[in-house]
Every structure is written in C-alpha cells, then in structure tokens.
Design a protein that fits this description.
CATH topology of the largest domain: Chitinase A, domain 3
Shape: rod-shaped
Number of helices: 12
Strand content: 25-35%
Helix content: 10-25%
Structural class: alpha+beta
Oligomer: single chain
Largest sheet: 6 strands, antiparallel
C-alpha cells in the first residue's frame, strides 16, 4: 500500500537534485509485479519529459522523482492508490495494479534557471575579455547533463569561429562566453529555453535538453581593432627610426594568441628582409614595423582583418589574431649613401687620400646590431688597397676618400654600396648594412689618373734606343721589364703603388705592342703625350 523507492545507483557527484516544479527528462521501464512489461521509453527511443510536482504524472511518480540526481537510477514500486487506482487504463493497466518502474534520470532544469559558468582555469595575465560584438575562436566539447557527448570541435580539428552577442549563437552560449580571457577554460551549462528549446536542433540534440559546453578560448578580437604594439626593448641610442620605403631585416617568432607557434625566422637561421609600407607584407606588419630602431624588440598583435583574414594561410587558421615578437637587426633606405663619422683626426692632416693612393688600414667590420663580421686586428696585419681601383666594395672606396694617416672614422655602408642582396655566403648576410671602424696607418700617393708609370725627371730623347739594349730595332718583354725596373730602383721613375710589378709591366708592354707579335718596334713605341694626340692607348 506504500510507495517504495530503491536507489540502485547514485553518482558520486550530485550538484543538484529534483525538486517540485523542476522539469526532468528520464528513461524508464514499466512492469507489473510478475515482470510483464507494459511500457518503456527506451522502446520509443526518446526520454519522458515532464514537470515534477505539477500533477502531470501519477502521484507516486511525482513523489518518487523528488531528490533524484542526474544519472541516478531508482527502482520504484507504486501502489494503485498512487497510480491508476481501481479504474486502471483500459487495455494497458488493469484496475488496482501495482506498478514497478526502473527509472534513470537524464536531465534536470527549472524555468528560473540561468546560465551556469564554472571557470576551472584562468591565465595569470588577462589583458582583455570577451565583449558583445567581439569575434572569438574556441574549442569545445558539448555534452548533455548525463555526460553524453553530442558534438566536439576537437573531433573536427577546427575551432568554432563566431561573433558574440549578436545572435549568431544560442542565447546561453552568447552569455556564457562573455568575460572570458584567451586561454581560459570554463564549463557553461545552459538550460533548454536558452538553447534549442522544446524542438531541439532536429539532429543530435533532443527537445528540452540542458547542454554542457566545456570551452577553451583560443582567440579574440573586434572588427574595429587596430594593431597593438608592446615595446619590449628600445635601445637608448636611437638615431633613426624606420619610415615608409625603408628596407628592414628582422627576426621574428609568429604565434597565435594562445601561444601556438606557426613560424619563426630563427628556425631558418635567416632574417626576414622586406620593404616597409609598400605592401610586401600583411597590412598589420607594414604598420607595426614603422618607427622602429635598429636593435629594438617589440610585440606586434595583428587582428585578422589586418593579417590573413577569414581564410588564413598555411599553419595560420582563418580569422586568427597573430602575435609577432620581432627583433630589428638593421634597416636602410635605397636612397641612402655612405655615412662617415670622424672619431679622431690628427692636428697635422694635410695629405688626404685620393683615388689611386695606396692605403694600409685596420678595421673592425660589424652589422648594425653590433655582430662582428671581421677584424684585421685579429689577423695581425693591415688591409692594403689601391683606392678607387675596385679592390673593395664601392661604399668602402667612398668611405676612405679624403682621409689622413692616423685618422679614425666609422663608415656605415648601405647594402646597395656593399655586398647587395646576395651578401657573402657564410660571412655577410644579404641586404646587410655594414659598419666599419677604420684607422688609416699608411698612405702612399698614387699616380695621376690614367698613369701606371711616371718619370721623376726629364725623359731621355733616345728612350727607345736605351730600352733596346741589343740594338736590333726590337724590344722584347724581358728587355722592357728590365729597363723599367732599373728606372724604378734608381728613382728615375715610379710605378703606381699597390699593384704587382710584373702585371703592370706586362700591361704597359702590351699597350705598346700594337700588332701583338710580342715585339715593340720604334714605330710602335709612343709616349703618353704622343698617344693622346693620336688618340691611342696611353703608356
């Protein structure tokens, strides 16, 4: 005659139990005491959905469901007076029948419920939280209250991307995502009237189902966002900042907002080299690289509409906010010339270097960021060149002009006057600005331009006869070389300094050997002033 309830399984966690007025979804098997089944929700493939304590159930079931937890299983014996009494249900339940129900509670909610949020991880730094009209990217597992999985973005290996608070989501999710930080993890429990309501979604979610979303927020931006710049290190000395049209070399690590690395110039062991403000890089980077100093480190946060947009690219998903940690190695402008800073000049500085002079100097060569490339000091010997003869890069030829012995200067050479886009493999990076700290140690004055040999006195009127020592009317290379060496050794003549003697003499001889037969005759032999008049090659 009494209602009997046997609790056959009670879950360890029971955050909420059924109270009168709650709406429940449950499965059941209905049988008579002899085991004959008269009804089953399992056979129909859907739960029984009903309010408790509002007279929508037989009295015994109204009482038996109170206090149940989701996933709890109860065996209920209901006497006729709390079931269908003396009348029964024609064709189904006879009069005065005792009913047995095996009940499993699937879902539970109340019309006064709100969205429940349980945050179980929050990053220490949370510079920004989700607001209405923000666009978010997040992963989720979607389950019912009993833990049954109905959907997962992880299984699709793709985030769910959407605007928040403008009706693109079910109302409960719109509420549940507000206030989240990137990297935050929370569980959002949504009653059906803030989800898919009485009808469900027509596929995986039944009507009147409470939904539980385990969410991790990966990305967040607003369509009105511009780039954000966080200065991490700015050198004390910053003589110049990048402008539109400059060419930059920089290192970077590229990550998503959640810290996932998608690219790094460091891993390639090569800087990224590009013009700024010319559309060679994404719009956000074009903007973020303006106003930087050499050696500066900054973080540039770029919203997707200034990055790779809705489609993404490679390892970058669509609608992703990008974070670039950059280190500026150097920059220059194609219009730059050589920059010369004199650090020391002797008081007696009358003889200045010019084209053709033979120079001996020490140098330290480095990049703009201070990376040492080369040093004559470490080699223990000077670097020796003929100025303006193409033995060094154009910028160095320019930087060594008008210098006196003992002078020290710093010469900054842009790449188009240095080693260009290719650089020197293994030594000088492509498109690198070079910095030379130079000290001139010795200067040997060169000859006038166009001369490889000059006389220090009057030229003999019988020059050819003097060279032609055997008086056969022909001068061989050996005779020519021997004569020139004798003039230099005696001080009567001077060769252009810094060049190989044999090469200079052979060049001079070849210029005189006009028919190319290896011999110079008196008719072929001419001095410079004679050749100039006749527009021939000069000696």
């Amino acid at each position: 005659t009494d209602l009997r309830v046997e609790r056959r399984f009670v879950p360890e966690s029971c955050p909420r139990a059924v109270r009168p007025g709650d709406f429940v979804r449950y499965h059941y098997l209905g049988a008579f005491p002899d085991g004959t089944r008269f009804d089953s929700s399992y056979d129909r493939g859907s739960t029984f959905n009903v309010f408790v304590g509002k007279g929508q159930l037989i009295a015994g079931m109204d009482k038996a469901l109170v206090g149940m937890c989701v996933n709890e299983r109860r065996f209920v014996k209901i006497p006729p007076k709390l079931a269908y009494g003396s009348e029964g249900v024609p064709g189904v339940i006879p009069p005065n029948a005792v009913l047995h129900f095996d009940v499993l509670l699937i879902d539970l909610w109340n019309s006064e419920d709100k969205v429940q949020i349980q945050t179980y991880f929050k990053p220490e730094k949370c510079p920004r939280t989700v607001q209405v009209s923000d666009f978010v990217r997040y992963h989720y597992n979607g389950t019912f209250l009993d833990g049954t999985l109905f959907d997962s973005s992880h299984n699709r290996m793709r985030t769910y991307d959407t605007y928040v608070g403008i009706g693109w989501l079910i109302p409960g999710m719109d509420q549940g995502l507000l206030g989240m930080c990137v990297g935050e993890k929370r569980i959002i429990t949504i009653p059906p009237f803030l989800a898919y309501g009485e009808e469900g979604d027509g596929k995986d979610i039944p009507g009147q189902a409470s939904l539980v979303f385990d969410v991790v927020l990966l990305d967040l931006h607003n369509p009105k966002d511009g780039i954000a710049i966080e200065n991490q290190h700015v050198p004390e000395a910053c003589e110049r900042r990048s402008q539109i049209g400059d060419f930059l070399r920089y290192h970077y690590n590229g990550t998503l907002l959640d810290g996932t690395l998608f690219d790094s110039s460091y891993s390639r062991n090569r800087t990224y080299d590009t013009y700024v403000g010319k559309g060679y890089v994404i719009a956000g980077m074009d903007e973020g690289l303006l106003g930087v100093c050499t050696g500066e480190k900054r973080r540039i946060i770029i919203p997707p509409h200034l990055g790779y947009g809705e489609e993404g690219r490679g390892k970058i998903p669509g609608s992703a906010v990008l974070v670039f940690d950059i280190h500026v190695v150097d920059f220059h402008n194609p219009s730059d010339s050589v920059s010369i800073t004199v650090n020391y000049k002797p008081s007696n500085c009358t003889v200045l270097s010019k084209k053709g002079d033979y120079l001996k100097y020490h140098y330290n060569a480095s990049l703009l960021d201070g990376t040492l490339l080369d040093s004559t000091h470490s080699l223990g010997k000077t670097y020796n060149i003929v100025l303006g003869s193409g033995q060094v890069v154009v910028g160095m030829d320019m930087g060594l002009q008008d210098m006196c012995v003992g002078e020290r200067r710093t010469v900054v050479i842009p790449p188009h006057l240095g080693y260009g886009e290719d650089g020197v493999e293994g030594e000088v990076p492509g498109s690198a600005v070079l910095v030379f700290d130079i000290e001139l140690l010795e200067l040997v004055s060169g000859l006038p331009e166009g001369y490889m040999f000059v006389w220090n006195g009057e030229v003999s009127p019988n020059l050819f006869e003097e060279i032609d020592q055997n008086h056969d009317g022909e001068v061989l290379l050996e005779e020519f070389s021997e004569y020139i060496r004798a003039q230099v050794d005696s001080g009567k003549g001077k060769l252009a300094p810094g060049f190989d003697f044999e090469k200079i003499v052979k060049n001079m001889f070849t210029n005189q050997d006009r028919d190319g037969n290896g011999k110079v005759t008196a008719e072929e032999f001419k001095l410079k002033d004679q050749e100039a008049k006749e527009e021939h090659d000069e000696l």
